[in-house]
């Protein structure tokens, strides 16, 4: 279980995330919604360790991880896919995923064996690529992939980390309509396994509605609503903060 | 077999493969093909600089670390052997002590610099290494009791490596003496070091280094502690540079700041790596061969051109042997302009 207690970060006087307390249970998918600048990605950064919290705590399975660096949190089971595609651009698609598989294997400090002799890492990486239907692009250089494929690769890297907590930051942003289902199917499949915690930041309300067990609304860094999708989406405070504006043109 | 020796990093270009075989064989038979003190000296220097450039490429090309302290480690290795040979006499025990001492000092220094400063941004790290290396060079020239100051040290090599040592008559007209043994010591050690580096960059560890070069932020995010990896890479590069320095000291029987610690050498190895192709061990090999050759023979070549153009007023002056640095500069600019990915990058592109 992942939990944040009074989690806060201040940039100067501005609190980008302001005293957010929230617990995320195993086997549930929680969507975090809110208008642009509400602090969703910053909240993610605090959880996965890209930013240090000003105050408050983050605990994973009862262990306080607030002061741990990002790599350590990843190895403890926090996996994160990034909003802006964040790959190893000049390495092959396969190598991008293989590097993520390699973290778990603990072979990173192996100096004297040949990478190519570790077939099992390559096979696992290929399996993850197949899961996002990128297997046929395995040898392509990541930077040369079209945007949609780069998003899929981002998700494949997250799958390869085999985390307990999956954090998706707008996984379908910028994807063409026909590519979106691939990603949603993957998220649904992870949820199906029942033992993973999933956090999703997403703007497409139909996606949020259909996938979420629960919706948390952030507004100006504060948690303003929390509950079942049907309740939250129809609550006044959410309409005012967020949905009211998008409902007009959504 | 070949795949295993080259750690799956095949040349992937016919011309590159040809060039590498030519270098490997050429250096192996150099003493017989080009007898004479100067050519043997050039061949040995090529061997040493191949190792030095390759170890620098581990930092620059593979890990994305810009360090100006690489010659410092080269100098530490050279002075280690030079000082111990001066103090302990010309024995193999002195060579062993000097090599190990240099190696240890290099690794300790690289670790300290790494842990303290590899967290900062590339440009600041480069500045820090520049400062440390300059301080070290000044220290080396001022501790003249130990290092011989600006003049450096002249010392006797172990008996088996001297010209006076003979282990047979002649072979193909070449005297079988200690210099020949010394050359093959340098050659074999360099070849072994290159193959070790090739293995390291093609290992799971090496793959993490390239990930760090590509995107350190993401490498952290998927669970690699980049500071630790960068520091280990710095240590390996420093240790290899120190060994290259030890080989140079064992070859030349004199060690001074100009030949080991100077900033000119730092620029030379930077050029070797960039011309050859960053991020490929073979690039360092090609770059080192080309640059050492140019430094030693460009003047001779220009002398020939100068003679041929003796009557022509402006051109004769332009091709005067003293202008060799100008032409080296022109060649470098052309190289970077036409092969931004280096010679090896270009050759592999064409496939």
From TrEMBL, chain A:
Entry's Gene Ontology molecular function annotations: ATP binding
| Residue ranges occupied by any ABC transporter domain in the UniProt entry | 2-245
Q: List the InterPro entries hit by this protein, alphabetically.
A: AAA+_ATPase, ABC_AA/LPS_Transport, ABC_transporter-like_ATP-bd, BCA_ABC_TP_C, P-loop_NTPase
Tell me the PROSITE patterns matching this sequence. ABC_TRANSPORTER_2
What UniProt keywords are attached to this protein's entry? Answer: ATP-binding, Nucleotide-binding, Transport
What name appears for this protein in its UniProt entry? ABC transporter ATP-binding protein
Q: Which organism is it from?
A: Reyranella aquatilis
UniProtKB/TrEMBL annotation, chain B:
**Protein name, entry field:** Branched-chain amino acid ABC transporter permease
The domain of life is: Bacteria
| Record-annotated membrane-spanning stretches | 15-34, 46-74, 94-116, 123-143, 184-206, 227-249, 269-294, 301-319, 325-345
Q: How does it sit in the membrane?
A: Multi-pass membrane protein
Q: Which Pfam families match?
A: BPD_transp_2
User: Which subcellular locations apply to this protein?
Assistant: Cell membrane
**Keyword annotations of the record:** Cell membrane, Membrane, Transmembrane, Transmembrane helix
Give the source species: Reyranella aquatilis
Where primarily located?
membrane
